[in-house]
Amino acid sequence: MTVISYAVEIEDLTYTFPGKKEAALKDVTMQIPWNTRTLVIGSNGAGKSTLLKLLSGKHLCLNGKIQVNGLDPFSPLSMHLPNNDEADGDVQVSTYLGTEWCHMNIINRDIGVLELLESIGLKHFQKRGDLLCDILEIDLEWRMHQLSDGQKRRVQLVMGLLKPWRVLLLDEVTVDLDVIARSRLLDFLKMETETRKCSVVYATHIFDGLAQWPDNIYHIKDGRLLDKLDYKKDVEFTISNEKYTNGDVTFNKGSHISISKVNSLHPLALAWLKRDNNINE
Ligand SMILES: Nc1ncnc2c1ncn2[C@@H]1O[C@H](COP(=O)(O)OP(=O)(O)OP(=O)(O)O)[C@@H](O)[C@H]1O
């Protein structure tokens, strides 16, 4: 059996959209190990979505090498992994959940949540489906057209995460979630990467609740990778003192970074909403 060393391997990737002069990604090289969570950080237009879409096979890479689970994401082979030695059963190579996916038509139709989930294989992944519905507090009797945006997004996330994947490519799809749902989703993804062979790559602009989450952070600007941090080794949170105000960042020698403790409202919002929802955990 071939051993696939990395969840994702990219070498010298340059990608230019048809009709564009400037490349959206330039000389990108990265290796993402198994059982890790990677954050991709960068401003609007930096190239995060392009990177995730290339990894999911939505765009064809012509310059450079991309492998996801040891396969070219554009190859038909990478659509589905056979159920052979896998302890976790039916697994797909990658799942991409991004902006276009958020706008799927079905979520606004007059259809029951149970019917919708059964139509995409709930019975086949019943245990996983039950866990996801529990985590995201889905009522199977809900009807899609009567739900709030956040409730619709939660159902969508159950749909998107129902089938296990080797690599999850998450392109900020948590904006509509309340802090409890987002925190539980992040915990679920952490648990997944700790308990089976998989990795998560997450591009986001929302940093609340992420202090204990990533293993690696990639910083991307104008299509180039500027920084790569081994989060546990390179980043520390320090107590504020007179010299630093909350949230100050100090770039030390090498790639070591100190961040003075941040006064985030996230824990308070989480506590309030837990109280609102009678959750004692
Ligand atoms: N379909 C497309 N056709 C042509 N150019 C595109 C296309 N999609 C993105 N681009 C360009 O590629 C560059 C990178 O865009 P990308 O969507 O990857 O950025 P991003 O980092 O995900 O930004 P955001 O934080 O706003 O989502 C931008 O300059 C953008 O204008």
UniProtKB/TrEMBL annotation:
<dbReference type="InterPro" id="IPR027417">
    <property type="entry name" value="P-loop_NTPase"/>
</dbReference>
<dbReference type="InterPro" id="IPR003593">
    <property type="entry name" value="AAA+_ATPase"/>
</dbReference>
<dbReference type="Pfam" id="PF00005">
    <property type="entry name" value="ABC_tran"/>
</dbReference>
<dbReference type="GO" id="GO:0005524">
    <property type="term" value="F:ATP binding"/>
</dbReference>
<dbReference type="GO" id="GO:0016887">
    <property type="term" value="F:ATP hydrolysis activity"/>
</dbReference>
<keyword id="KW-0067">ATP-binding</keyword>
<dbReference type="InterPro" id="IPR003439">
    <property type="entry name" value="ABC_transporter-like_ATP-bd"/>
</dbReference>
<dbReference type="GO" id="GO:0005737">
    <property type="term" value="C:cytoplasm"/>
</dbReference>
<feature type="domain" description="ABC transporter">
    <location>
        <begin position="8"/>
        <end position="247"/>
    </location>
</feature>
<protein>
    <submittedName>
        <fullName>CCR4-NOT regulatory complex component</fullName>
    </submittedName>
</protein>
<keyword id="KW-0963">Cytoplasm</keyword>
<keyword id="KW-0547">Nucleotide-binding</keyword>
